[in-house]
């Protein structure tokens, strides 16, 4: 079960965005050798379950993906299990109450001494709720005060829209979430992202992997150990 320490770690992350509204966040970890999944309390809730109500497994994780998005999420999961490269994936999930939610998942793998992926970890940001539109409007008002700021944020937003297929509002929500979580100005997050994306691409890193790596880099202690709910052994990764 998720303990108080997890809540203490996430409390600043889930603190009020604009008008006291938090962008839902859920952490996960997958131990590849044992097949065991670990979810934070909020990730259970994001999927429509009470914390600890079910034992998270690969089958459950995959079954909640929207059928139209399943080929893409299967491809992303297979790639990170093979290479451990960072990823950023926008897709829809279907909750246990049959509600459709739109999420952005950011994560990466961790290699063992032999170069094999031994752990995959990351987080979900739920960008479904209409509250994010009000948040985007507030950000839009703020950035209009500075043409330079507006330009770099538009570039970063455009990168997310092209690579992840996000709408303008959803791209704003992702940028704002990382700004709030990292306690850095939105302009600084946008500058970091656009500068990182402008570096010549290497053959072994796709645009999706690069944007995932960059977003993960601004999250404090992204790979720090967390107290999560641990699932049973599930030997099949697909």
Topology:
Blueprint (H helix, E strand, L loop, with lengths): L3 H7 L14 E7 L4 E4 L1 H6 L11 H6 L6 H14 L3 E8 L5 E12 L5 E10 L4 H13 L3 H18 L3 H15 L3 H13 L8 H11 L11 E2 L8
Antiparallel strand pairs: 1-2, 1-5, 2-6, 3-4, 4-5
Compute the number of helices: 9
CATH level 1 name of the largest domain: Alpha Beta
Shape type? globular
Describe the sheet with the most strands.
6 strands, antiparallel
CATH topology of the largest domain: Beta-Lactamase
Name some characteristics of this structure.
RNA binding, globular, single chain, EC 2.7.13.3, 238 residues, 2 domains, alpha+beta, disordered C terminus, 43% helix, PAS-like_dom_sf, Beta-Lactamase
Task: Report on this structure.
The chain has about 240 residues and is an alpha+beta fold. The protein is built from nine helices and six strands. It has a six-stranded antiparallel beta sheet. Helix 6 (about 145-165) crosses helix 8 (about 185-200). Residues about 1-20 and about 225-238 have low confidence and may be disordered.
Provide a compact summary of the structure:
The protein has 238 residues and is α+β, with helices and mostly antiparallel strands. It is 43% helix and 18% strand.
């Amino acid at each position: 079960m998720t303990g108080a320490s997890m809540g203490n770690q996430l409390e600043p992350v889930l603190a009020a965005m604009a008008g006291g509204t938090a962008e839902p966040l859920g952490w996960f970890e997958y131990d590849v050798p044992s097949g065991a999944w670990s979810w934070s309390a909020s990730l259970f809730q994001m999927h429509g379950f009470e914390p600890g109500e079910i034992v998270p497994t690969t089958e459950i994780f995959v079954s909640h993906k929207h059928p139209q998005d399943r080929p893409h999420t299967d491809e992303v999961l297979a790639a990170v299990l093979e290479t451990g490269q960072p990823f950023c994936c926008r897709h829809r999930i279907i909750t246990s109450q049959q509600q459709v939610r739109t999420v952005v998942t950011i994560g990466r793998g961790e290699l063992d001494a032999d170069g094999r992926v031994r752990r995959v970890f990351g987080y979900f940001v739920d960008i479904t709720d209409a509250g994010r539109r009000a948040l985007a409007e507030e950000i839009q008002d703020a950035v209009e005060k500075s043409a330079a700021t507006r330009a770099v944020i538009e570039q970063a937003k455009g990168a997310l829209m092209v690579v992840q297929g996000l709408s303008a509002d959803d791209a704003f929500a992702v940028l704002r979430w990382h700004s709030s979580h990292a306690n850095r100005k939105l302009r600084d997050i946008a500058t970091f992202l656009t500068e990182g994306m402008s570096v010549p691409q290497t053959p072994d890193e796709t645009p999706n992997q690069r944007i995932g790596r960059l977003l993960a880099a601004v999250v404090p202690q992204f790979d720090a150990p967390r107290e999560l709910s641990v699932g049973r052994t599930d030997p099949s990764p697909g």
